[in-house]
Design a protein that fits this description.
single chain, 106 residues, mainly alpha, 2 helices, 84% helix, rod-shaped
């Protein structure tokens, strides 16, 4: 009877060892899968950050282009209001607007 019990215990211990081995193998596979998933998520995050950076850069470039257009339009508007007076002598240090005002009063 003692031998039977000992044999049963050995079989049970062997089954426990086998189950632990299977469990360990399963855990290793799960860890490998988690590492692969982590790597993929990291790559996706990096790609997303790159795209966000490119989008922000493009947005800034568009804003700069719009501001340049606005400045150019304002410059053109200001030039349209300029008046060229010919035949009026100009002296160094003289303010042209004062000369025009004086000539207009005469």
């Amino acid at each position: 009877m003692f031998r039977n019990e000992l044999s049963e215990m050995r079989n049970e211990l062997k089954n426990i060892r086998d189950n632990f081995t299977k469990l360990r193998d399963t855990m290793l596979v799960c860890n490998k899968n988690l590492e692969e998933i982590d790597s993929r998520v990291t790559k996706l995050e990096n790609r997303m950050e790159e795209r966000e950076h490119k989008y922000k850069s493009m947005e800034l470039e568009n804003t700069i282009a719009k501001l340049r257009i606005q400045l150019s339009e304002r410059d053109q508007d200001l030039l349209a209001n300029d008046l060229e007076i010919s035949g009026l002598p100009e002296q160094k240090g003289e303010v042209a607007i004062n000369t025009v005002i004086l000539c207009a009063r005469k």
